């Protein structure tokens, strides 16, 4: 025990000495950059003292970890700091080092144009404050020279996370499970550091994504930290995790092969996927349609998910009801008319989870209560609907609730109790919103509580079983800790992609074979594309790629058989005026020659409307 203690003290002394040296070397590097010294990654190589500081702090964690400690307290995501380690770190003055680190990163921000050096300069340059480039949501990229300067501070940044982003062994068990700020050694310091330097940290993670699995893993595992990550950073990390799981599942179980009849896609998929366990479902998907030729290199899978996205909302299954505008869906309160409704909800959850895990987009838009349900287990959000959320689902009911809030109950002649009435095929049933609610009158003082309880009942409580079954199926494919890093809006983008089809972006990301950009056929083609209606644009995209959805990063990220594969227009051989055809696995269009723009448009519209339902045609 004495030897162990001496090792800790020696390591602590090294930390103290290293921190003093690290302060000086960091400040020197930034001073050189300000005075005009080139700030490339070569000229600003990391000081060995800072690397030593990182290694010693990591060693301290190892020495202070008891290999025989309670297994239930071990955590692979966020390391745990023993009280012994906390006492040692408190005895070392690291705060001055962290202050210097923040000061250096502040100067880097100035060099990059992210922030201004002083408040006075902010006031003198008010026009620059509205610059969109300074908005961290835009995912600002660092210039190469400044990126090198930022990378130079990586060891100290990692050391900061090692010291502050670890769980207190003495913290409350519930707080530890939820990764709350209070359960961390330096929770408040960590949050302040991340919030102040979020633009630079996101830029660093773009250049070195593996940091989210190493020194900066707290950024994706601590709920309060994930809100400062840009969507593209989170999405890249998520795709990497999904790729690992898919590769492991494919090695254990092989590919997930489905033989589907085109006229019974929903039923065949339900029957075949119900026989597979969660690990088997993660394997690479291969779909074949009965009596149709074609090998699935991605195009058939996209078409499969496209058909299922429509079928899951088929009123004949009584699973979902649409909102007033018909754009979003939520579980049907009366879905139990289908005796297997919970099994179907679990199946739908599996389909959505599989699509998200494999990077396929679905034309499926769920109401806000579904999206927020993904977050409840991580204590990020506890969804309590308000009457504003009711507006999209039932505008008339929303107006009634608003009237209750805006006027005195006596003036509008309402005599309410804390209960609501549900109707089930001609039968009425009173449901208490609070214990014995049917006998508790609603007054003007507590009517806001009544309105919120009514909304909560209609949007969560009344469909609780359906939401749970849906989430159970989704979590078969994607574990809660992975998906909960996304906000509800980001989750919608992850499932459904971009809402608009930007033809200019498609044109910019198009390759040509046999044609040149200036050829009259190509000029006609783009004239036609810009003139199409929104639905026809979606139909064309479905025809040539197998999906009507735009990738999250635009058409530059269009996926094909060989990974990222741009849309391509090939000059088709054959007679003038022949029908055009497409290859969804390669995102390509075979475009024949035509005598006029009108003839080309006629053939294109015929192809996307008549040829979208068969792989042989497209």
What is the residue-mean pLDDT, rounded to a whole number?
A: 77
Secondary structure: helix percent: 40-55%
Structure class: alpha/beta
User: Would you report the number of β strands?
Assistant: 14
So what's the overall shape? Answer: globular
Spatial extent as radius of gyration:
29 Å
Biggest sheet, spatial arrangement of strands: 9-12-14-13
Biggest pleated-sheet summary: 4 strands, mixed
**Spans of at least 5 consecutive residues with low confidence:** 1-5, 33-44, 70-75, 116-140, 375-383, 613-618
Task: Calculate the terminal CA-CA distance, rounded to whole Å.
Answer: 73 Å
Share of residues in strands: 5-15%
Number of helices: 28
Word description of this protein:
- It contains 28 helices and 14 strands.
- It has 618 residues and is α/β, with parallel strands linked by helices.
- Helix 1 (2-34) runs antiparallel to helix 2, helix 2 (48-63) packs parallel to helix 7 (154-164) and helix 17 (341-358) packs parallel to helix 22 (464-477).
- It is 50% helix and 8% strand.
- Strands 9-12-14-13 form a 4-stranded mixed beta sheet.
């Amino acid at each position: 025990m004495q030897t162990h203690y001496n090792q800790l003290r020696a390591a602590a002394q090294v930390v103290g000495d290293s921190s003093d040296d690290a302060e000086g070397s960091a400040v020197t590097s930034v001073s050189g950059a300000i005075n005009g010294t080139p700030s490339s990654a070569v000229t600003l190589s990391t000081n060995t003292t800072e690397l030593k500081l990182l290694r010693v702090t990591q060693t301290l964690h190892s020495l202070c970890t008891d290999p025989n400690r309670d297994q239930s307290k071990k955590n692979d995501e966020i390391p745990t700091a023993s009280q012994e380690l906390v006492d040692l770190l408190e005895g070392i003055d690291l705060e001055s080092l962290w202050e210097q680190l923040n000061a250096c990163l502040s100067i880097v921000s100035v060099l990059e144009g992210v922030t201004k050096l002083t408040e006075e300069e902010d006031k003198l340059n008010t026009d620059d404050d509205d610059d969109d480039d300074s908005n961290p949501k835009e995912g600002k990229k660092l210039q190469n020279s400044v990126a090198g300067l930022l990378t130079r501070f990586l060891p100290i940044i990692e050391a900061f996370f090692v010291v502050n982003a670890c769980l207190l062994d003495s913290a409350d068990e519930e707080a530890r499970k939820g990764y709350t700020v209070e359960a961390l050694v330096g929770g408040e310091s960590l949050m302040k550091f991340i919030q102040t330097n979020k633009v630079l940290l996101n830029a660093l993670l773009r250049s070195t994504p593996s940091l989210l699995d190493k020194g900066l893993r707290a950024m994706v595992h601590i709920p309060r930290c994930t809100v400062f990550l840009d969507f593209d950073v989170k999405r890249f990390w998520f795709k990497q995790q999904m790729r690992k799981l898919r590769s492991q599942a494919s090695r254990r179980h092989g590919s997930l092969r489905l033989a589907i009849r085109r006229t019974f896609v929903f039923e065949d998929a339900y029957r075949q996927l119900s026989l597979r366990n969660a690990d088997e479902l993660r394997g690479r998907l291969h779909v074949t349609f009965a009596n149709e030729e074609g090998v699935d290199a991605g195009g058939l899978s996209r078409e499969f998910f496209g058909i299922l996205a429509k079928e899951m909302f088929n009123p004949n299954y009584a699973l979902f009801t649409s909102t007033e505008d018909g754009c979003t869906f939520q579980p049907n309160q009366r879905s139990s008319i289908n005796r297997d409704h919970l099994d179907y909800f679990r199946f739908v959850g599996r389909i959505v989870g599989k699509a998200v895990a494999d990077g396929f987009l679905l034309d499926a838009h769920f109401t806000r209560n579904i999206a927020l349900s993904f977050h409840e287990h991580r204590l990020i959000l506890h969804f309590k609907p308000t009457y504003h959320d009711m507006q999209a689902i039932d505008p008339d009911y929303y107006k009634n609730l608003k009237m209750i809030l805006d006027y005195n109950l006596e003036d509008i002649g309402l005599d309410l109790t804390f209960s609501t009435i549900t109707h089930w095929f001609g039968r009425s049933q009173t449901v208490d919103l609070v214990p014995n609610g049917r006998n508790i009158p609603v007054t003007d003082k507590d009517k806001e509580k009544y309105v919120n309880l009514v909304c909560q009942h209609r949007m969560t409580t009344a469909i609780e079983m359906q939401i749970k079954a849906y989430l159970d199926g989704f979590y078969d494919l994607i574990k809660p800790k992975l998906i909960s890093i996304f906000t509800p809006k980001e989750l919608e983008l992850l499932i459904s992609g971009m809402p608009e089809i930007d033809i200019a972006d498609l044109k910019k990301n198009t390759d040509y074979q046999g044609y040149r950009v200036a050829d009259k056929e190509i000029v006609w083609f783009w004239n036609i594309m810009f003139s199409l209606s929104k639905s026809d644009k979606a139909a064309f995209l479905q025809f040539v790629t197998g999906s009507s959805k735009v990738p999250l990063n635009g058409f530059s990220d269009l996926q094909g058989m060989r990974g990222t594969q741009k849309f391509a227009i090939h000059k088709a051989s054959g007679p003038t005026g022949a029908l055009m055809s497409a290859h969804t696995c390669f995102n390509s269009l075979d475009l024949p020659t035509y005598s006029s723009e009108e003839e080309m448009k006629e053939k294109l519209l015929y192809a996307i409307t008549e040829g979208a339902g068969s792989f042989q045609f497209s």
